[in-house]
Specification:
This protein has 2 domains: 214 residues, 2-Layer Sandwich (Ribosomal Protein S5, domain 2), CATH 3.30.230.10; 170 residues, Alpha-Beta Plaits (2-Layer Sandwich). It has 11 helices and 13 strands. It has a 6-stranded mixed sheet with strand order 5-4-6-3-1-13, sandwiched between helices. Strands 10-11-9-12 form a 4-stranded antiparallel sheet. It is globular. The structure holds adenosine-5'-diphosphate and magnesium ion. Adenosine-5'-diphosphate binds next to α2, β6 and α3.
Length: 395
Amino acid sequence: MTALSSLQSKTSDLFNSKFGAGPGLKAGYAPGRVNLIGEHTDYNNGYVFPMALANIGTIAVGRMTKKGEINIVSSADVSPNSFQYKSVTTELGDIPQWARYVVGVVKCFEDLANRKVSVDLAISSNLPMGAGLSSSASLEVAVFSLLESLYDVTNIAKIDKIKACQKAEHKYANVPCGIMDQFIATLGDVDHALFINCETDDYEKVPFGDESLLLVVTDTHKKHELAGGEYANRRATCEAVAKSLGVPSLGEVSIDQLVKHFCTPGRDLSHLPDKAYPRSRHVVTEIDRAKKGKECLVAGDVRLFGQLMNESHKSLADDYQVTCKELDEVVQVAWETEGVVGSRMTGGGFGGCAITLVYRHAEQALLDRLREFCPYSSSFSTTAGRGAYSWDLPE
Ligand code: ADP
Ligand code: MG
């Protein structure tokens, strides 16, 4: 049984035990993701370069009802694991945090499709929650895809679907996320990554991976609890530097301009926050690495892509200072393993996951070494997989 077919059985079983078996069942799937390169560039109007995980994501199984309610059950370790939403009486404050993602998506779908939704829904995922692999967008896009199928709505543009899912996360779950996660969960494709311009939402599909390569994802299991203030502080610093350069965002600044700004003798920069130079240097060089990384993959130069991944990690560790001991250890072990092309932390940092691009012949050696030297971590291997889709379930 493949990972997805066992996830589908699990979700169907959950549905049947909660709501009862019967006709009219459909399923929606959306994957989790990793960002290959381009970290902390999104809110600086730069570029990100995510790929969808193959067969690792969320499945939502559902059926239309006439009850005028949204009934949801999740197999995840959340309490309570089921929730009933009645649009007339339920207040946002009554909804458990995890169910807000689902209710939010239903509401945003209703607005776009101009339909009232009444459904029973069961949800299962084989993604870790809160590990930086975007279980949240995977959940949102899986539910949205299911609703499109249940209500036979075929005219919603992909970008509107993406923005509706992002809006659900902003407005209902109260998480001010960027647009990358919903983008890749919707538009990811087998053996491709998406190069996204965060200023314009333009994107390019770029071939990623050949048969000799795998991506190993290593979860440090370190939670980034205290990261909120650190992110806000990094973001404020980026904005302050852009302002002092007279531009709307660091996305418009070249490395030469930045060096000149900070290294011209006699210039008074005392109004800028502490570490303004290394922080902005990370962003500007990372945007450049993301662009170069895309060019490398277009040209099939995997070796140089790996070097850019390594440089990205060093910049995140030294200049942006968002790695942690565990992420640095995992990446160091990968760097010292024969057959590794490149390795870096992925996601916001302070915990979460690292990714390592490795030749298949070296996969086992890498996994063994990670188990030995980073026993707190767990790893899985993946390639670039499909974005969201939906299907009918047999009776
Ligand atoms: P990430 O997206 O990196 O996994 P987030 O903090 O953005 O981390 O989203 C995780 C949250 O999404 C969980 O705490 C939970 O509220 C919700 N979530 C994700 N997947 C599920 C699921 N299968 N069932 C219930 N809630 C889920
Ligand atoms: Mg998320």
